[in-house]
Amino acid sequence: MNIERITQKLRVLLGERLSVSKSDLDLHGRSETHFTQANPDAVAYPKTTQEVSEIVKICAQEHCPVVGFGVGTSLEGQALAPLGGVCVDFREMRAIRGLRQEDMDATVEPGLTREELNDELRATGLFFPVDPGANATLGGMAATRASGTTAVRYGTMRDNVTGLEVVLADGRIIQTGSRARKSASGYDLTSLMIGSEGTLGLITALDVKLQGQPEAVTAAICAFETIDAAVNCVIETIQLGLAMARIEFVDTASVAAFNVQAKAEMQEMPHLMVEFHGTEFSVAEMAETFGEIASEHGGLGFQWAARREERDALWNMRHNAFYSITQSRPGCRSIVTDICVPISRLADAVNETIADIAASGLTGPILGHVGDGNFHSILMFDPENQSEFQRAKQAAERMVERALEMDGTATGEHGIGMGKLHYMEREHGVGWQVMGSIKAALDPLNIMNPGKLVPPKS
Amino acid sequence: MNIERITQKLRVLLGERLSVSKSDLDLHGRSETHFTQANPDAVAYPKTTQEVSEIVKICAQEHCPVVGFGVGTSLEGQALAPLGGVCVDFREMRAIRGLRQEDMDATVEPGLTREELNDELRATGLFFPVDPGANATLGGMAATRASGTTAVRYGTMRDNVTGLEVVLADGRIIQTGSRARKSASGYDLTSLMIGSEGTLGLITALDVKLQGQPEAVTAAICAFETIDAAVNCVIETIQLGLAMARIEFVDTASVAAFNVQAKAEMQEMPHLMVEFHGTEFSVAEMAETFGEIASEHGGLGFQWAARREERDALWNMRHNAFYSITQSRPGCRSIVTDICVPISRLADAVNETIADIAASGLTGPILGHVGDGNFHSILMFDPENQSEFQRAKQAAERMVERALEMDGTATGEHGIGMGKLHYMEREHGVGWQVMGSIKAALDPLNIMNPGKLVPPKS
Predict the structure, then answer these.
(1) Does the pTM exceed 0.90?
(2) What is the pLDDT of residues B216-227, one digit of tens each?
(3) Residues of the domain holding A61
């Protein structure tokens, strides 16, 4: 590729909305975790789908990589540019194109963040439920098939997007799905694009489902003597069909970090944090049933948070866990793992992971979305200490191996990017080759986010 | 293709489980709706995934069409063999390979029907919720992305299958997804295969999610003066977040057919049929709230059915609607339409359809899954009367056009097959070409269910 010719053409299209400044390139070539800096050659800030299409056409002519960018909160290096090329930053595309309260849906641009959308929705009585913690963009969340704390009730991005506008690798624009709540019309291109991490196209608009704000909400935290007791409490709650809106597990090490950073006073034991949404009555009924189940499993020190401020404090603490934990060891970096297993194997997976981390001499607090069988360890390492980094990588590797042996997956919600590429063959076998065939069919020049997700071109 | 050579090879593989008898070919070449008979050249009854793989390899060598077959309840000609070839009937593959109560999931073979699965599950306290009415096979339901009366609560096949074993067009076997409840690991091949109607591969096993049988269930029917009143009642109920397990609409003409066939005594007016699942208390609360909303919209003659036998009678009547309606005019055939629109447009769509059918001089009762915005008209015609058939086809065409103008879809749950192929360009535009590219990448010889869903090869 000839990057001078590309930037010339893009400058004609975008004017000042094309940047090659060092600071911009650096901002778009960094990651929150352990990946090395990988800058693009230029950053484009399109305002319209048509501009995105023109950018991709120019890049296709020049066989130049195209990397989509939201706000850079991805954890597996999805937005890095290891082969350079043009970063397409969607910050100028954050409009709500349509909001239909009667249909409880909206059409939004990819650069809008989930908090911005929910702020706009506040007065309507509706909200967008997917909550990965970070205030990510909706385009990024769709591209990585994000989920988070509320997936146990409301599903992941896969369940909350009914259609997409996508710019393909040759600049063609498609609309997938429709505004109908379901469809049996042809291949599910919406689902194919969700989780494709920009390797098949760039998402330029999303049709999202909205939910009615529940009449009543209540949340609680509760401690357990053992991880098994906490997990068995979760299993029993699910089997009873209790519609939890959230159910989160934090281990003793995570609690210790909360106590320091959030000045909380939680007992240093494994905890569950739960939330119920419904009518006044149904929430009270669910809370009571959950309390009984938790007590049977030795649940201790129950604290209910019915008031909004109390709940916000609780979930802010949970959402800031990554920062609390990494700040507990200044100067460290981290590998954030993300396995998901069938729930019957969850206690085993967590216990074996804790033992393994301890044996490796590492610090790696564990927390997760236990209703889905999904949990993370934040494996910390001193970037100056190669041995520690290697041990952290090996522990992360063993977590994934454990998950796959348990019929689970290498990633519940963070995606593949560059960080999990080497597990794909093992997890999917021939299926990974099929992904490569689809990629080759839709992006024969391999310009869309190259080096991520699919098998390297041989 | 050389069908003699193919049947010879298949006979070696399958022995008596290969049939070329006229009666078998006829059984596999018929449809329940208006399609003309289209027989395969042979019918294979494999017992294992390995045998399916061998069958497909033999067919690939000979460029011979391969058509999957469950029990033949598809409504758009998906299982017909317009180009002949080998029909793969899954009736010998109906095992439950695994049932994990703690994980609330099961691995089943594609020939098992949903009623057979639920019979097996009865003692466990679990059930499989997707209910398209017909006692279809689970493989067929996945291949057509089926849904039905319970989708408003439990989702479609897309939402209830976490993984698939699939034999590809070259005989390779892949496992998509995993038993984890969610995953962000690569392209969503499970969703790509669900709804692909056998054009990308043959499903040989499914990992399905199961639900806990609710503690309490209650159902009701209720009449409304107008279609608008019934639909507005539904919209308000959804906006309040009431978790209906089913909410079905039937028009006056459908009620008349029920009254004759099921010896019911319903008022000849539009009706809603609803069902709630939950605890004793939450069901009572939901039923009361629904009763209030319905009354505000002029709901009349409420009848609650808390007893199982009463509910079964209610839903049997609904499930047999297709037969009640077609039997109301002996000797007739039917076009079963299946549009789905945003719910704000539902009343318009139904009213315009009823007016259109009346103006066409046809009989076409309407019923549908109104919680999803999905409804059907069963357009009857005398097979001897070409003018009537043409008018029915045109009315069906206008229904789809109306749905697409309303941002909806040509098919909510019946799929494309041969019957809706000519709407694909209009509904998906360039997206249909993308489907063709994926098809060409995964089935370059075009042997998997040719003539369905994707653009014809030019």
Answers:
(1) yes
(2) 999 999 999 999
(3) 3-91
